[in-house]
Each structure stands twice: as structure tokens, then as C-alpha cells.
Design a protein that fits this description.
Distance between the termini: 40 Å
Order of helices and strands: HHHHHHHHHHHH
Structural class: mainly alpha
Radius of gyration: 20 Å
Largest sheet: none
Number of strands: 0
Length: 204
């Protein structure tokens, strides 16, 4: 954990190696901490190598393990790998994705400019027994910004009430950005007028 806070991925990997050499085999918690250190240090490839090493060391990965791997891919913009872990590796290991898994995958698609995939991930969550939260919706709406797909952003914004979720500043900011890109200024003004009702103050 100390290595994780300092982002010292080299030290974290050295500790794992020393443990193995001394016959004290690292468990899933040790691997998860090392993977998190790699993620925070932008060493996403090393995080995936550690994931593979767990299998060869007969250490069963946990939900946290896969979420860390997906998040590492998200931070690096590796949306293909994030989706592969979510849709292929986790089921093969009989680990059920949770909202953290999906949110990281949606974010990865968003960063990769794949707004259709981000939307499909959001829509797939209920069928997998996972209820989207406001982070899920914000991540998907944010994916629409670069493409200016403001109609889709407004559609998801409207879905929040049915999902019993309350939009926040990130929600409105992402939706407004999508509208601005396409010059939908009347819609922007409507969104700004909606914000006080949600107890959100627009940025000046």
C-alpha cells in the first residue's frame, strides 16, 4: 500500500519478486495492490502482465483485480482491451462485472471516441444485473461531446428520472458541451434554465 501511494511501481514489482523467491507466494491482495500501483503510474501493460501472472501462479483473480485492469486500460485509452476484459476474461473466470467494471469500460470507450460503444455498454448493464448509476450516465453522456451528438445526450438526460437518478454538474456540463459543438444554443439555454431546479449553479 505504501508503494501504491507513492506510485513506485518498480518497488511494488520488486516486492512481489522477493516474496516469490523467499517462498512466500503473493495472494490476490498483493497482486491487486501492485496492479493499482502500475495503473497509477500509467504502466497499463505491466498491470495486464500481472493479471496474466496470477493465472500462471494459480492465484485466483477477484472482482477488484479485473476492475483494476479495466481501469488501467481506461486511463491509457485502451478501449479494446477494456472491453475484452469485461466481455471475455471476466466471464471465463466466472467473475460478474459490477458498476465499477462497466463505468471504467464506458469511460475507456469515451476516451477512445467510441460513443456508440459507450452507449451500448450503458444499455447492456441492466441485462447483466447491474443498475447504472449517475457515473455510468455521465460517462456515456461525456462520450457524446467530441462527436456533438447532442440529441443522444438529451435522451440520456431524460432517462435519469426514470432511473431515479439526479443529474449533477458533470451531467449538464457534458450535455451542454455536446450542444455547443453543434450550435444548438436554444437547447443550451434550456439546459441552463433546468439547472437551478436541480440545485445546480451554472458556471459563470
Amino acid at each position: 500500500n505504501g508503494c501504491q501511494k507513492q506510485g513506485a511501481w518498480q518497488l511494488a514489482l520488486s516486492i512481489l519478486s522477493v516474496m516469490q523467491e523467499e517462498g512466500s507466494l503473493p495472494d490476490a491482495v498483493c497482486y491487486n495492490a501492485a496492479m493499482s500501483t502500475c495503473k497509477r503510474s500509467s504502466q497499463w501493460a505491466l498491470a495486464l502482465i500481472l493479471l496474466a501472472a496470477m493465472s500462471s501462479s494459480s492465484v485466483r483473480p477477484t472482482e477488484v483485480t479485473f476492475n483494476t485492469a479495466i481501469s488501467a486500460c481506461e486511463h491509457a485509452g485502451q478501449w479494446q482491451l477494456a472491453l475484452f476484459i469485461l466481455n471475455d476474461t471476466m466471464p471465463k473466470n466466472q467473475i460478474k462485472p459490477d458498476s465499477v467494471s462497466y463505468n471504467s469500460a464506458i469511460n475507456a470507450c469515451s476516451k477512445g471516441g467510441r460513443w456508440l460503444l459507450a452507449l451500448s455498454m450503458l444499455q447492456a448493464m441492466p441485462g447483466d444485473g447491474v443498475e447504472p448509476d449517475i457515473i455510468s450516465y455521465n460517462s456515456a453522456i461525456s462520450a457524446f461531446k467530441p462527436a456533438g451528438v447532442w440529441e443522444a445526450a438529451l435522451s440520456l438526460l431524460g432517462d435519469l428520472s426514470n432511473a431515479k437518478l439526479t443529474p449533477d454538474m458533470i451531467t449538464f456540463g457534458a450535455a451542454i458541451s455536446s450542444c455547443e459543438l453543434r450550435g444548438a444554443w436554444q437547447v443550451v439555454m434550456s439546459l441552463l434554465q433546468m439547472m437551478p431546479a436541480e440545485e445546480i449553479k451554472p458556471d459563470r
